[in-house]
Amino acid sequence: MKTLPTTGHRLVFTGKNEVELQPFALSAPAAGEVLVENQCSLLSTGTETIVFARKFDPGTHWDAWVRYPFRPGYATVGRVLAVGEGVEGIAPGKRVATRMGHGSHVVMKAENAYPIPDDVTAEDAIWFGLAKIAGHGVRAAQISLGQSVVVIGAGPIGQMATRWALVSGAARVLVADLSLDRLKLAARAGAIPVQGSAAETTAEVRRILGGARPDVVIDSTGNAEVLKSAFGMVETEGTVVLLGDTGTPTEQRLTGDVISRGLKLVGAHDGRNSPQWNNPVAADRFFEFVRTKRFPLDGLITHRFLPSQCVEAYTLASTDRLRTLGVLFDWSQAAKTLPAETAAPAAKVAALAGVTG
């Protein structure tokens, strides 16, 4: 008889620079919910390393958000094991992407599980969450056909912002970063790579653009010092989008360029959803662009870990940002090494929780 798990495992931050793989009890999905067995989850090397090391100032929104125990992560891919009463459109066996934390399983509202097309791989689908976040920044830029765009930072968010800018009609998208390997991945998507820091690449950007400045500059770095370089780089009356969220916002400074050249500064954040841009809309566009080869993602996964190697994974991501890009936790392989789960007969769980399928 088919059984459903009653125990799962998930990653938990227990304190500053402390992470553990912990067991937790799984319940059957209630009405409107689904039980998902995760195949993989993606570590956000920006947000999660800031949280892991508490690299933020007291009194910031980070400080109000991070309380221990803290469950990190917001990008998973898995397969539906069971559905609760009233769930339609998602059946057991369907692959889904979610914005949930790092874990082997999750019980969640069915409306927040986004079906993955059959011709999209798990390692491509796992980028959905970060792509949705980066989409906020590109939408905030209001890119017009034929404009030039510079994305500062070729990390995970910068890679996603680059791809959205390219499919949004920008004539040229330049990407500035210190890492040649990251720049090569951006170039594969159609961007023009410029190696160096934001301050070092301003002159090269203008040379590539024939002496002009870019119409839009997107700062995806989360580095407070970069903003002033973005102001100096962008065209007069151009737009600077602050997409990378820093833990030290008081270190970000306006420059004389803002008022003397009439610049526009726009902030973008994952929480600013609207009817025009939200998880369902982003999932629809992202998966369509991936499956039609307009959103190339090959090579973006640079490291793979078992969840039991979480200390190693977070240490690497926190101390070697230029070498890491996509850091993947493989939960399908983890199932072979985790302690045996206590399982209940599926028929009994279904009877208790209205599970169908």
Spell out the key features of this protein.
seven-stranded mixed β-sheet; 17 strands; Rossmann fold; 357 residues; alpha/beta; 13 helices; Quinone Oxidoreductase, Chain A, domain 1; six-stranded parallel β-sheet; 2 domains; disordered C terminus
| Order of secondary-structure elements | EEEEHHEEEEHHEHEHEHEHEHEHEHEHEH
User: Portion of residues in helices?
Assistant: 25-40%
- How widely separated are the two ends? 14 Å
Low-confidence stretches: 341-357
Q: How does CATH name the architecture of the largest domain?
A: Alpha-Beta Complex
- Strand fraction equals 25-35%
Tell me the CATH superfamily of the largest domain: Medium-chain alcohol dehydrogenases, catalytic domain
Oligomer: single chain
General form: globular
- The count of helical stretches stands at 13
Largest sheet: number of strands, sense, barrel closure: 7 strands, mixed
Computed CA radius of gyration, to the nearest angstrom:
21 Å
Q: Please give the number of β-strands.
A: 17
The third-level CATH topology of the largest domain is Quinone Oxidoreductase, Chain A, domain 1
Determine and state the CATH class of the largest domain: Alpha Beta
Count of individual domains: 2
Average pLDDT confidence is 92
Overview of the molecule:
It is a single chain. By secondary structure, the protein is an alpha/beta fold. It has 2 domains: 3-127 and 300-353, Medium-chain alcohol dehydrogenases, catalytic domain (Quinone Oxidoreductase, Chain A, domain 1, Alpha-Beta Complex), CATH 3.90.180.10; 134-267, NAD(P)-binding Rossmann-like Domain (Rossmann fold). The chain has helices spanning 47-52, 61-65, 122-125, 128-141, 156-167, 180-188, 198-208, 226-233, 256-260, 279-291, 310-319, 331-334, 346-353; strands at residues 3-5, 7-15, 18-25, 33-43, 76-83, 95-98, 105-109, 114-115, 148-152, 172-177, 192-195, 216-219, 239-242, 264-267, 301-305, 326-330, 343-345. Strands 4, 5, 6, 7, 8, 15 and 16 form a 7-stranded mixed beta sheet that branches. The chain has a 6-stranded parallel beta sheet with strand order 11-10-9-12-13-14, with helices on both faces. The chain is globular and about 65 Å long. The chain starts with a strand and ends with a helix. Residues 341-357 have low confidence and may be disordered.
